[in-house]
Amino acid sequence: PPEKPTIIKCRSPEKETFTCWWKPASDGGLSTSHTLLYSKEGEEKVYECPDYKTAGPNSCYFDKKHTSFWTIYNITVRATNEMGSNVSDPHYVDVTYIVQPDPPVNITLELKKSVKRKPYLVLTWSPPPLADVRSGWLTLEYELRLKPEEGEEWETIFVGQQTQCKMFSLNPGKRYIVQIHCKPDHHGLWSEWSPEMYIEIPTDFRVKDMVVWIIVGVLSSLICLIMSWIMILKGYRMMAFILPPVPGPKIKGIDTHLLETGKSEELLSALGCHGFPPTSDCEELLIEYLEVEDSEDQQLMPNHDTPSKNTKIILKETDSDSGRGSCDSPSLLPVKCRESRGLPSALQTQDVRAKEKKGGKGSWEAQCTASEQKTLPCNSESTKSCTWLAAQLPSNQPAMFAYHSTVEAFKMTLNTTNVSTPPVWVGNEENCQSLYPIAETVYDDVEKISEMENSKTDQTTVQVRQNQHNDKSPFLNPKLMDYVEVHKVRQDEEPTLLLKHKENSGKTKKCTVPGTNKEYTKVSTVVDHHILVLLPDQRTQNTPVSQEHVAETSQNPHQSQAEKNTSYSTTTPSDSRRDASGSDYMDPSSFTPSFK
Amino acid sequence: MSTKGASLKGLLLVVLLVSHMFLTKEGVTSLPICHNGYINCQLSLEELFDRAVKVSHHMHFLSSEMFHEFEDRYAQGRGFIAKAVNSCHTASLTTPEDKEQAQQIHHEDLLNLILGVLRSWNDPLIHLASEVHRIKEAPETILWKAVEIEEQNKRLLEGMEKIVGRVHSGEVRNDIHTPWDGLPSLQLADEDSRLFAFYNLLHCLRRDSHKIDNYLKVLKCRLIYNNNC
Predict the structure, then answer these.
(1) Domain of residue B177, CATH code
(2) What is the 8-class DSSP label of residue B217?
(3) Inter-chain CB proximity B210 and A72 less than 8 Å
(4) Which pLDDT tens digit goes with each residue over B174-184?
(5) Nearest chain B Cα distance for residue A49, angstroms
(6) Which end of chain B is more exposed for a tag (fewer CB within 10 A), N or C?
(7) Backbone torsions φ then ψ of A408, nearest 5 degrees
(8) Which residues 204-223 of B are in CB contact (within 8 Å) with A?
(9) pTM of the prediction?
(10) ipTM
C-alpha cells in the first residue's frame, strides 16, 4: 500500500478561489492515484476535488463556487494503488487566511522637481489584476524595497494601502533597483517581489555645480595671476615707498658730461668756480679730518673711524623759507663703492644727526672748503651751498653719508668775496666710488641752518674726511666757497648728501656750487630722476646755481623719496635744464618738515 | 496731527481690549468649530464610514493577535482546532460567505447584520475581559487586549448605529441578535475544557471581527466610492 501523501499547501491568489497541492506518496513503482476529499465546517458531507487539472499535477483547484470563506475546510488526500490506499492527515484550512496575491503590476517612475529645484522620484504601481480591490472585498498593503545597484542590502519601506511613493533621498547619478510586493491587509502572505526596476537619477544639477566650480577656479587663478603681476611690476614702487631713494643733489651748472670727461676746468668754469681743482697746496686739505670751526655746536670731526659727530655746516640760510640748502646736512658716511641704492637714501636729514660709521664702512669726511665764489654761477653772496656728491654707501650700509663738514667753514665761505675754491668733495675713490665732497652738517638743531650767514670770505676748509678706504683724498679746496648743500632730510634717517657721480668714475668731483644766496637752496626740480635742480631765489640773483649732478644711486624709488625730503640740487649746466628750472623753484622747506 | 494719530491709536486699542474682553467671557461663545469631515457641523457619511472601518480594523487586529498568542501558549498539540468546528454562537446568523453574496446583499440588510453581530458579541466580550484572568499565568498582553476589544466593540456599535440611522430609510431593526451562553464553559473547573472554551471563544471572535471588517469595507467602497476604491 502506498505511503501517506501529504498536503503541502493551499493558496488563494485573490480571495475568491484556492488551490491545494499535495505531495504524492512514494510508490514502489506502482501507479498510484490520488483523490482529494474535503468537508466543510458544519456539514458532514464529503466532497471530492472538483478540479484536478487546472492547477497542475497533484493539485486541486477550488473555483468560486466551491470556495467559502469563514469556513474551515477539512481536506484529505487519498493515495490509492493496487496494493491499497492511504490517506493523508487532515488539513484544516480557512481560506480567509491563506490569501497570497500576485505581485503588483504597472510599476512606473516619474521624476518631478520640487519647489526648491530638487528632484524627487514618484513611483506608482497597480494592484495585481486578479485582486478585486475596487469593491473593497480584498484590501492590499504594499511594501517596496530598493538598493543601489552595487549595494548589498535592501532598504524596505512599508507603504500601506497607497499605490504611489515619493522618494526624496536618492543620490543623483546613481543607479538603484526597486521592487514592490503586496499582502492582504489582515491575514495572508506576501506576494512575490515584482520584477526589478532600475532607477537612474539624472545628474544635470551636478553638472551645473561642476561648471560653477570650474568658473570659480578659473577666475580665482586669473585674479592671482593679475595680483602677482601687479606685485612684480609695482614692486619697485613699493620698495620706493618703503625705502625711499635719496636723490642726489643737483647743482646747477654742473654738467654731467663734463664731470665724466673729467675736465674739471671746463666744469668749473661752467660753474663759475675758479681755482679748482685745488693745487698742490691743497694737499693739506687731503686730510681725513674735516675741521670745522664753529662757534656753536661745532664739533670737530673725529677721526674717520668714528665720525660720530658731524660738524655742522651751516649754510647760510637766511631765507625764511629756509632753503635747506644749507650745509647742515647730516653726516655723510663715505661710501666706498657706489651702490645704486646708497645715494638717494643717504640724504636724509631730519634731525641732522651724527652719522656714525657703520660697521666697516669708513666714513669719510669730506673736506669741503667753502670758499666764496664769486662768479656768476657762484653766488658771491653769502649763501654757500655745500654741494657734495653723495658717495654711495656700500650696499649694506644704509645710504647715509657721514659728512663732516665744518659749519663754520661754510659760514666763512658764505662770503662770496673770497670764495675761490669750491668746496671740495671728497669721495671715496675706491673703485666705483665717485667722489663727492661730502659736506654734511649734522644738526641737532635745525636752526643752525639759519646761522648760515654771509660769512666772510675767509676760507674755511672743510675737510672732508675720507674713509680709510679712500685712497685718494678728495681735494679740498680750502677756500671757502659757496656751495649748495644738498642733502636730504628725512624724518628718521640721518641726513645724507647725495652727490651725483659718474658711474665708475673715480674722479673726484669737485664742484662748488656757488651759492647764490640764501634762496639759492631752493630746489627747482628733479630732473631725470637724479638731478636736483636748485635755483636761486628769483629775487636775489639769477645766477644759476652751480649744478651738480646728484649721483643717483638709488633708483626711482629713492628718488621719489628724496623729493620728499629736503633735497637740493642744482640745475645742470645744460641750458635747457637751466631754463627749465629757472622759472620756478621749489621751496625745500616743503620737503623738510623738520626744519623750522 | 501727531496727537490726533495718537488719540486714534489709543481709541483703537481700547476697542480691541473691550472686544477681547467680551469675547472671552463665558456667556459669549463663538460658533462651534467644525473639523474636517463635518458638513453643517455634522459628520458626513464618508467620515462615519472611515471611522467605523478604522475601529473594526483595529478590533480585528487585536482579536487576531490575542488568538495567536493564546494558541501559541496554550493550544499547542491539543487539537483544539479540530474541535472548534461549527461552534460559534453567531453561526445561526446567515451572513455572506463569499464575494458574490457580499455584493448581492442589500446594504441595509448587511448593515443590520453587522449590527446584529456586534450586539451578539457585547455580552461575551464583557465576560471575556472579566474571566480571562482565570487562565493560568495569562500574560498581560492578553488581558489588556481583552479589555481593549470590549471597548472597541462598544464604540463600533455606536458608530454603526449612527450610520444605520443615516442610511436607513425605515426604522432600525433591532431583532438580529444571538444570545451567548458560553459563560459556564469559561468557568469550568477542568483546565483543558476551560482552555478549549477560551480557544473557541477567541477563534470565533477573530472570525466575526474579520467578517465585520470585511463587510464594512465592502459597504464603504460601494456606498461612498461607488465601487471604485
Answers:
(1) 1.20.1250.10
(2) H
(3) no
(4) 777 888 888 88
(5) 19
(6) N
(7) -60, -35
(8) 207, 210-211, 213-214, 217-222
(9) 0.53
(10) 0.81
